[in-house]
Amino acid sequence: MALSAAELQKKHDMEGAPDPFAPLENHVEPYSKPVKQELDTDSHQAFPSLAPSAPAAKPITQSAWGASSGPRIKPTISKQPVFTDSFTLGTVELTTKDNKPVTLGEVIRQVMAKYKIKVEASGNQRGRQTTFHLKAESQRELDKAKRLLLALLSPIETLNVAAPTSAIPIIIGPKGATLKQIRDQTGVRIDIPPRDTVNGTANGHATGDDEDEEPSVQITVTGPKPLALEAVDLINQIIASKIYRSTQRIRDIPSHVLPFILARKNVYEAAAQGSELKLQSSQLEITASGEREAVHRAVDLIKADIAELSSDLTSLKLSLPKRQHRLLVGKDAQDIMAKSKCAVIVNLEDPSDEIAVWGHAVDLSSGLGAVMEQANSKYIHEFPLPGPQALSMQLLEYMNRISYPKTLSEKHVGVSIFVPSPVTIERAHSLVIDIVGDKPAVDVVVRQVSELIGKLIGATKEVSIDWLTHHVINGKHAKKIKQFYDIYNVLVYFPPESAERSSVLLVYDPFSQAASPSPDDKARSLDEVTKELLKMAKDAADVTSEALQVERHWHDSIIGWGGSKLDAIIGEDKALSIKFGLDAGDSATEDSILIRGASADVSRAAKEILQIVENAKNDQIVNSYSIEFDIDREYVGRVVGAQGAGIKKLRDQLGVSVDVSDDVDEKEIGKKKKTVHHKSKVKITGRKENVEDAQKRITGQIEKLADETSEIVQIPSKYHSGLIGQMGKYVIRLEEKYSVKITFPRQTAENGEGKTREQLKSDEVLIKGGKKGVAGAKAELLDAVEFEKESNNILKFTVPTRSVARILGKGGKSINEIKDTTDSQIDIDKFSNDQTNITVRGTKKAINAAKTAILAIADQVAEEISVTVPVESKYHRTLIGAGGQGLKDLVSRCGGGSDPRVLANLIRFPRQDEPSNEVRLRGEPAIVNKLKAELEKSVAMLRDRVVLAVEIPAAQHRALIGRGGQHLIELQDRTGAQIQFPGSRSYAQVGEPENAVDLGDIDAANIVKVTGPRAACEKAIDSLKASVKVAAPELVTSTIPVPLKYYNAISQQGQFFRNLRNFGVQVDQSIQAQKPEVPRRPTPSGTSSARIDEEEDADGPEVEWEVAPNYQNVEEGDSLWTLKARDQAGLERAEKLVHDAIEHAKGMSFVGFLTLPDRTTFPRIVGPKGANVIRVRNETGADIQVSRENNTIIIIGSENNIVAAKNAVMKLAVRPRQHD
To answer: Where is the composition biased (Basic and acidic residues) (predicted)?
Structure first.
């Protein structure tokens, strides 16, 4: 039998060989000798490999003989980007933008601009194919860019995958996680039909279910072809993982047998013999799921037990009060089974008091005793709900709405409360609540229920409002309905929409603190809410009904696929009710449709339904066009396709129906009639234009088939795997391009012929298709063979096994770098304990370069030596140092490198869980010998180490450590000792100090540990003691209240506090003033500016002068100033200054605003270094502030002082007279 591309790939051990086929766009160029050109070592086309290395970011499985047992020796090759990928496209489809064609360069620039990636494209002129090489800084960027590039350059195709219905949940995953992962990874669209649209479901009976008959679901994958194929492969992998699993159901198990089966669950699970098995029960069936063999064994055992128990069990019936039935179900029934090996069957919905006990005859007596014991094990109180049936149902609904039974059960442990079921409510004349438990606890619950019922009498009411308006009322008046509780203490409960009930329950909340015990108040509140609700209902809609008569076979057209059309008619508000057939009412027929809702919505829905029916009738007429024609019988199989794929494609794309039937002629040959098939009749039905298009496609396909031919090409079998490609992708692309079928031989038989339908020999390849396509495929196939001959060179050699770990590198990084750099394929196979075989494939230049790089690593490894140094484990942490800094310094002193990976293999300490004390050194002899000497020297110093302690006040630790540990590091370097302060990570690890007894009475927070040689420790201790500062004497303090309104006047922008600090006084303030220092300048009065020296000096400047009271709109209250001084004299002096400042601030009651025409006179007013301002301030006693932003000078003081200060300032501002 001929192999498909996928089967061929399984046959040949391939890992992504390069595309050997050079696709042709228009015609096949004659073969010519290639022109010698510069070699591109990065080109995947020039240096293909049968299995390109995985990206460096993805770790590979390490060798069994270790990949990290020595120092890393990097090959002497040029460094390449860590993340690379290559792919080849035979046909590049470019779209258009703004009616202009998009070039390949624009697409590449678009991808490079979006992601941090470098894209190189090279074209094969002879083969008309394009190879893309991608380099990125991260694997994530590389994958995203590759998907985008494929999406922009590949044609959009739609593929179908047939998946078993049982595999659909696994494909979708929890909350769609698996399906989303596939979509995100490939960027394609994946459509899975809804579950209710799948035709047929597996019945699951264990009585003969054939899992091969499980119905399948057609999953549609749409996207760029390479990405769509990738998504299909991922889905097929999930489906394949589902094959070994099975699920079977055993249904219709007799109710009296099921308890005995459930009791033997452990026996059935043990029958799985360690395989995965899960058993679940639901009603009268058991579901077994897990590994196929385990499910079959368990199901067979369950079926045998059901048959045996059905014939052996007998029953005994007895009557018990209905209230006691509740004690014989659920876990209680399981306890009876475990105790007596009998099952009790109880039907709580049956009004009868009869129960049945099932078991073997010898066990019935003990079963009966166990049932009676359990039935009388607890006290049961029947609490009848008061009032007529309507009131009882109102009380019951309210208790269910607030989960009152559950709340009571949680509050009173051991008490269970059972309310009537819906079936019981319909049958019973009175409603009863059963309360089960110990009598004292039950009595407490009964009292609480009685209290609630007493509060609910007269507190409930039902209002009839058409259920179709409930949604509108809730949406439009939700806020007002919530306010009913705040205003009237009334809760409003609308029934669920699915119930289609028009009764709305009103309850006067009995638990509210505002609840009134008066029946009149309850009734008044309920009536008010009723009026409001009825008004809302009247405003909501005018409900009406309309009946239509539409033939039943049109109902599906109205409902639509999955109810889509019906949902659109009803609308989002769902305020319409549309019922079909006999559900429309008592007098309805199968053709009836009843529409009920708001009058406007009913009219609209009726029109839409009638229009849908009219359109469906027209479509039936339009789609009734058909055409018939004959085709040769030999082409029917190719037209229909595998499993009807060809016909299905026409149906999906054109919406037509295609039927194929045979024309049979009976010819009499001799005395017998022989049936001869000459022609097959094809009938196509649908829209006229689609029918004609389908006929054109079929006839065109037959014309191509009539031109079909075949040819056998001689190709040595060793090149077959390279021509097929990974998963057959190269041969498939060639088949699609030329519309041919290419068959490679499968396995070789004893007679030397391949096991295929065409009886091919091992070196024969069959090409079948149209004459032109066969010729083109043959030419391209032969060109690919020449390419394989040139690039498929093989070189084998051996290396010492001990060097393999370094050749591979951690996670395969070294070997992958060699692969990427040389563009070769490298296989490593362990030959013996001493030697390992290495096989390199590629071009001659590539395999030689790879061999050189590998042997360079092997030669360097051969020169290494390995020694061990005994080091006690207690010194390991000290030698390694924080973050490995100790090892880095040690290697640096010995002339080693700083590469962390080399360092990790050069020195290896035992792990914490290893009992060994040996430290391994491995590397070049010179470095290893130096490291050994340095390590032994450091260990000797550590063995001579002592631990001493010294008392240092904790308050001074921070100062001794210094910022960033600067002081501590300097001290350690100077003394050669290590100092550990309390709280450090190593404080507890250094051990107890030798002089711990001498410091026994000292606070542990003040003890500093010093470690190292004794002389160094003593030196460090002396330095620490010398650095300890004598504690400062206690300060004397005093508190003075300062009014907040004087704060700014006293502080003088901080100058006052600076003066106090000059003689050693610090000030702590409880609060500071937040408002501005001076009031705002008053609004000018509008009068003309006056000149204060008009009589004396006619040349004086024009000014504005406004005076305002100070301390207006200031903060009230006091700020407590705490004065801290070194001695009493300084404190008393500070107190006097503060009191004097307060008195001075009291006299500064006015603020003057002096505005000059410009700032040209300000330098003269201020004087050198403010000398003039200081002089005026001292002479007048007023504070003067010269603004740097405007022309206004602010003067603060008493009314006389500010006038005097103003006059002094104006004298300074007047320019000197010019004398004649």
So the answer is: 26-41
d(CA 606, CA 568): 13
- 491 or 883: which leads in pLDDT: 491
- Check: CB of residue 535 under 8 Å from CB of residue 543: no
Question: Which residues contact residue 184 at a Cβ distance below 8 angstroms, ignoring those fewer than 6 apart?
Answer: none
Q: Is 1117 exposed, middle or buried (0-12, 13-18, 19+ CB in 10 A)?
A: exposed
Rg of the chain over CA atoms, in angstroms? 49
Highest mean pLDDT (candidates 724-733, 1070-1079, 1136-1145): 1136-1145
Contact 1119, 1041 (CB under 8 A): yes
Q: How many residues does the chain have?
A: 1220
- What backbone phi and psi angles, to 5 degrees, belong to 87? -155, 160
Note whether 761 and 730 are within 8 A (CB): no
Mean pLDDT (whole number) for 936-965: 84
Task: For 908-960, give the secondary structure using H, E and C.
Answer: ECCCCCCCCCEEEEEECHHHHHHHHHHHHHHHHHHHCCEEEEEECCHHHHHHH
Pick from 1059, 1067, 1005, 1013: nearest CA to 1035: 1067
Please report the pLDDT score of residue 1211 as a whole number.
87
Rounded CA-CA distance 893/889 in Å is 6
Cα 445 to Cα 436: distance, rounded to the nearest angstrom: 10
CB atoms inside a 10 Å sphere around CB 575: 22
Query: Within 13 A of 1014's CA, how many CA atoms are on the CB side?
Result: 3
Q: What residue type is 992 in one-letter code?
A: E
Band of residue 35 on the pLDDT scale cut at 50, 70, 90: very low
> Rounded distance, CA 182 to CA 177, Å?
9
Q: Beta-strand (E) ranges in 320-353?
A: 343-345
User: How far lies 936's CA from each of 399, 871, 902, 1121, in Å?
Assistant: 83, 8, 21, 66
**DSSP assignment, residue 180?**
H
Query: What letter would DSSP give residue 13?
Result: T
What the block records as the tokens of 139 is 């694997």
Task: With CA atoms as reference, report the closest residue to 1139 among 1043, 1068, 998, 1019.
Answer: 1043
Q: What angle do CA 200, 201, 207 make, to 5 degrees?
A: 120
Across the beta sheet with 460-464, the strand order is 460-464, 503-508, 490-493
- Contact present, 395 and 385 (Cβ < 8 Å): yes
Instruction: Yes or no: say if 322 and 305 are a contact pair by the CB < 8 Å rule.
Output: no
- Each as own residue / partner, the long-range contacts of residues 1174-1179 (CB below 8 Å, 24 or more positions apart, any chain) are 1176/1205, 1176/1208, 1176/1209, 1176/1212, 1177/1205, 1179/1204, 1179/1208
Beta bridge partners of 548: 593
Please compute the mean of the pLDDT values over residues 160-184 and round it to a whole number.
Answer: 83
Quickly count helices (H) and strands (E) in the chain.
43, 45
Distance between CA atoms of residues 613 and 620, nearest Å: 11
DSSP 8-state class, residue 1111: S
The token pair that represents 141 in the structure block: 């960027």
| Tokens found for residue 695 | 């006929």
- Amino acid at site 198: V
CA distance 695 to 660: 13
Residue-wise pLDDT tens digits, 64-80: 333 333 333 344 444 44
Give the type of residue at 1133: R
What would the two tokens of residue 1001 be? 């009475």
559, 566 Cβ separation under 8 angstroms: yes
Tell me the pLDDT tens digit for each residue of 1042-1100.
888 888 888 877 888 888 887 788 888 888 877 766 677 766 554 444 444 444 444 44
803: three-class secondary structure by DSSP: helix
Rounded distance between C-alpha atoms, residue 896 and residue 42, angstroms: 34
Q: How far apart are CA 235 and CA 213, in angstroms?
A: 20
| Average pLDDT score over residue span 40-60 | 42
Q: Which of 14, 44, 45, 52 has the alpha carbon at shortest distance from 815?
A: 52
